[in-house]
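Why run this: before we spend reagent on co-expression, it is cheaper to look at a predicted model of the complex and decide which construct boundaries make sense. The entries below are exactly what would go into the expression plan.
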Amino acid sequence: MAPVATQTMDVKSIKSVAESPALSSVPSAYAFNINPNDEADPNDPEFAIPIVDMSLLTSGSPDQRSKIIHDLVKICKEWGFFIAINHGVPESLMKGMIDACHGFFSLPDEEKEEFKSGNDVLEMFKYGTSYNLALDKVLLWRDFFKVRVHPEFYSLYKPACFSEVSMEFSKRTREVALEITRAISESLGLEPNYIHDAMNMDHGLQMLAANYYPPCPQPEHAIGIPHHTDHGLVTLLIQNEMNGLQVEHNGKWLTVNGPANGFFVNLADQMQILTNGKYKSVMHRATVNNKATRISIAIPHGPSVDTLIAPAPELLEKEGQAPKYIGMNYKEYIQLQQSGKNYMKSTFDHILA
Ligand code: OGA
Ligand code: NI
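The model came back. Tokens follow.
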């Protein structure tokens, strides 16, 4: 039998593996065990996912806005995750974006390979399977692509509709993300533009990162994306009709099930660093299923890549705290996260003060 390493380097896409008629079990290179005892009971009120009505932030009365901002303190501390509803991005645009991503993943492997590139997160775009075939100890049951859409907008050139849809979708989701950062700034007792300005978000990094998870014959023996935190400030995520995202809450994994037109919003590492650990970059993962293909689109929003991120001095002073994290340039942080030193885990351990 050929060594696993040679076999795995030949994998073009999990889509083609999953479509092979002979597949009845998970190939050994993908073996990953999910422990069902770690899963949360979604009917337990302790695991009721917070919902944030964005229309009350943008056009509610001052009282309604203050109430949401007040709620956000608890949500960001205890969950680091919520579902944003009434956010103003048309459902047709969200669906159009999912369809355009589906169109890309449906191209023949050879055509998708044109979009392969190096392993630098700052590439214009990147298509691949698993996470990083050269580093992965277990292969992931997913194909993906990432496109950088801000501060400069890039696009895939296939399928033909991709560029137009992704430009509008990226612009509209950015408005939602910026509204969230304003509300979070206020929830910290800071000026609404504090995070935007301190993080140079005028030149902030925004990606469009799509994942394709085909049906898996033994979903409990494979993983779409293992537990990790995201490196930016805040990530918005949408999906087709299939669930699969799980967030860690009170020591359990909770499957996120929410309104189809909502954005799943998770706080990410730079938010935890900026708030000196007051707000939480939530641990999350993507599971797979044996019924239908799941597509998710994550839209991470971050500082500009040359910004030095450290706990906000205004907050340290207010809370009388010493900084818990050393300052680091965002680009270096991303490179540290992707170096494989802390394979798909939190990068914080490297920057504790
Ligand atoms: C990610 C991610 C989860 C999902 O792309 O960083 O966490 O549900 N995706 O696909
Ligand atoms: Ni993630």
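Residues 52-350 form a domain with the Jelly Rolls fold (CATH 2.60.120.330). The first strand starts at residue 51 and ends at 53. Bring this page to Monday's planning discussion.
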